[in-house]
Specification:
single chain, alpha+beta, Nucleotide Exchange Factor Grpe, Chain A, domain 2, three-stranded antiparallel β-sheet, 17 helices, about 5% strand
Length: about 425
């Protein structure tokens, strides 16, 4: 195979079909081999099987043997051709991690790191959310370690991976492993990209961004460093403590002739600005208090009006109540006198013409019609009750037996009963 020319390989590839995969381990550069989409040709599972077969054969050899060195070189070509395939996004993340784990680092390790990170970004970008969710922590840590070797910048593969994680599994991005080796400048370069929302989240802001902001302000030694820091995007600048900024100004500008003049002017401007803000605040407070006073006076006026109206209604209600009470009282007296007059008229007319017993029964019926109840019966013995009895002679002690000689009358029942006329009694 090594002796075949590129033209011969170019002619052989179409005829070989899937068998052309064997050429992927050919340890030489060839334009013909670069045209083969190895992943598409082998399929994701076939590509993973190729990696596993190469690893298994390599493990079976003595590491220091010439055969092992030759096979290791062939594996390196195989892996690079697989991972450089246009269809590399079809591979599983596990296959990529296993394939790159044993790769020999080229002299330019940074170049290899960027290449691996680019492959990871492509594969992770093609993953579905469940695949990442079910990924073992060990594999996530391996991805994070691979990304640590490349800088974090807006167009870079590391930013693409972190952006994908933030969109699909934001809680994962709070782990410090994704931010290892990151500095203030790195955060500033991605703070105007969609990752800005990640930098502004509470967890990442407190664990990652805030410490780097504090470190940057504390380490600034020149006007350029300080002003560049203060010009950082909002995601970083919002975490700069005012006192820390003031200390940085004092430290950096006091020993700088130009900066010292700025500092004096800034302090004067700051004082003037503070006074202006105070005047504005006092003016605003006075205006608000005047408005509140006007509202309070209006409220008092409305309250007085309501009070006068209520007093007038109460006076009208009192007058109406008095009139009603007098009318009701007069009507009660009329009703009582009408009943009494009827009784008198009956007794006067019946006294000479009817027997006393009949007159007595008629009077009692008239009393019952008005709600009166006889109290006591002549000749009956009862315990003496000062509230219900009038005694002839010296009053005895309560509950002393007495004899009823004349009935009394009560009105109402139970707790509402009123003794109108007490029964006449004498000692038994």
């Amino acid at each position: 195979m090594d002796s075949l020319s590129d033209d011969a390989l170019q002619a052989a590839v179409p005829a070989l079909g899937q068998a052309a995969l064997i050429l992927q381990a050919l340890p030489r550069d060839s334009k013909a081999l670069k045209t083969i989409d190895a992943v598409q040709l082998a399929g994701p599972k076939g590509a993973a099987a190729l990696v596993d077969a190469a690893d298994a054969e390599l493990r079976s050899l003595e590491p220091a043997s010439a055969k092992a060195q030759e096979l290791r070189r062939a594996r390196e070509f195989l892996i690079r051709r697989l991972l450089n395939s246009p269809s590399v996004g079809l591979l599983s993340l596990d296959t990529v991690l296993r394939a790159t784990r044993e790769m020999e680092s080229p002299k330019d390790a940074a170049k290899k790191g960027e290449w691996v990170a680019e492959v990871l970004a492509t594969v992770i970008g093609a993953m579905d959310q469940d695949s990442w969710k079910n990924l073992a922590l060990q594999d996530k840590s391996a991805v994070a370690r691979q990304l640590t070797s490349v800088p974090l910048n807006a167009p870079g593969s590391r930013a693409r991976v972190l952006g994908w994680i933030w969109r699909n599994h934001p809680a994962d991005l709070a782990d410090e492993m994704w931010w290892r080796g990151v500095e203030f400048e790195d955060l500033a370069s991605v703070a105007t990209t969609p990752l800005a929302s990640a930098l502004e989240s509470d967890a990442i802001a407190s664990a990652v961004v805030k410490p780097l902001v504090v470190k940057r302000l504390a380490s600034a030694t020149t006007r350029r460093q300080l002003l560049t820091s203060l010009a950082a995007p909002t995601a970083l600048a919002r975490l700069m403590d005012e006192s820390a900024v003031q200390q940085a100004f004092d430290r950096v500008l006091l020993d700088d002739n130009i900066g010292r003049a700025w500092l004096v002017r800034l302090r004067n401007e700051t004082r003037i600005s503070e006074l202006a803000h105070q005047v504005e605040a006092l003016t605003r407070q006075a205006r608000e208090m005047t408005e509140l006073l006007g509202k309070a006076q209006e409220a008092v006026r409305l309250r007085d009006d309501r009070l006068h109206r209520v007093e007038a209604r109460l006076g009208e209600a009192a007058a109406s109540t008095n009139e009603l009470r007098e009318s009701q009282s007069r009507q009660i007296r009329i009703d009582v006198m009408r009943a009494f007059a009827g009784l008198c008229a009956y007794v006067d007319g019946a006294a000479d013409s009817q027997p006393a017993q009949r007159v007595r029964e008629r009077v009692r019926r008239m009393a019952a019609r008005e709600g009166l109840t006889p109290s006591g019966a002549p000749g009956r013995t009862e315990p003496y009750d000062p509230q219900r009895h009038d005694v002839i002679g010296e009053p005895p002690l309560p509950n002393t037996p007495v004899t009823v000689t004349g009935i009394g009358y009560t009105w109402g029942e139970g707790a509402d009963e009123i003794v109108l006329v007490r029964a006449i009694v004498e000692r038994t």
